[in-house]
Amino acid sequence: MNSPINKILVYIDGSELSLTAAMYAITLAKTLDSELTALYVVNTRALNDLVSARIFLAEEEMDYHKDIEQDAERYLKHVAKLADKKEVRLITKSLSGTVHREIKNEIKENDYDLLVLGGISNIRSRRDELFNETDRAMRSVKCPVLIVKDEESVWDLYDNL
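Request: output the structure for the sequence above.
Response:
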């Protein structure tokens, strides 16, 4: 019987939670012999909001955007090393835009069977819920979503793979 999970997308945002999700996705991909892609989205919506609020000048936005692109490259390379250690082929992608929209489009365009996310942060207000991009992605994608928790267990699974 074929696995119902042939293509996995893990979202990386540089947080410890997303790196734990990457480790779990690597473990899952290896176990299921699935294709794995790691995606980092440079959040241009947040950058535009900072310029609109006059927290950043337009010139500062460009510098900050470059810094975030470098962060994306660094985190994706880190995840690639984690995958390489477990002999899992990993495709890395970096996109720019509104996070939940880019995740949703990536899933739609490439027919992923599963989205893997790091634990969702605690929502303190309705406004936080509306603007939490990862939460919005989780709610808007058409494929199943796996939320990774329990960092210690994930480390054990990854180490024992």
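The chain has one domain: 7-159.
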